[in-house]
Amino acid sequence: MRILGFSKRWAKLEQKEFSTFRLPRRDQDWAVGEQVQVVFQPRRKGGGEFLGEAEIINNKSKVIREISEEEAITDGFANAFYMWLWLKTAHKGISMEDTMNKLTLSWVRRV
């Protein structure tokens, strides 16, 4: 089971279903029906904090410039501009023309 890590305790993680944006993976991209371990700060010494398991129920490909204001706010940002600033910091060399996966997940088990 792969790890889906979060560096911040987003409010969306308290919802039964939540969405997150991820860059496509080169090895094996995220798939609908896949179950993942949701972990807070997975790269922290000791492996981070296990939050539970979730299932990917939708995977939609989106060009970054097409992410709506509403989607950015739902994702936990004040607006799409602040989401873009965060993406530029988190992913060096990313452009507005790059594609991201909008994953919608449903909790299977929360800790």
Walk me through the structure.
The chain has 111 residues and is an alpha+beta fold. It has a single domain (2-110), classed as Sulfate adenylyltransferase. 15% of the residues lie in helices and 40% in strands. It has helices at 69-74, 80-90, and strands spanning 2-6, 17-22, 35-40, 49-63, 99-110. Strands 1-3-4-5-2 form a five-stranded mixed sheet, with no helix packed on it. A hairpin with an 8-residue loop joins strand 3 (35-40) and strand 4. The longest helix is centred in the last third of the chain and has 11 residues, at 80-90. It starts with a strand and ends with a strand. The mean pLDDT is 93.
**Major sheet: arrangement of strands:** 1-3-4-5-2
Order of helices and strands: EEEEHHE
Note the beta-strand portion: 35-45%
Low-confidence runs of at least 5 consecutive residues: none
| Biggest sheet record | 5 strands, mixed
Radius of gyration: 14 Å
Average per-residue pLDDT, rounded, comes to 93
Distance between the termini: 16 Å
CATH architecture: Roll
CATH topology: Sulfate adenylyltransferase
The percentage helix is: 10-25%
3D shape: globular
Strand element count: 5
The H-level CATH homologous superfamily, spelled out, is Sulfate adenylyltransferase
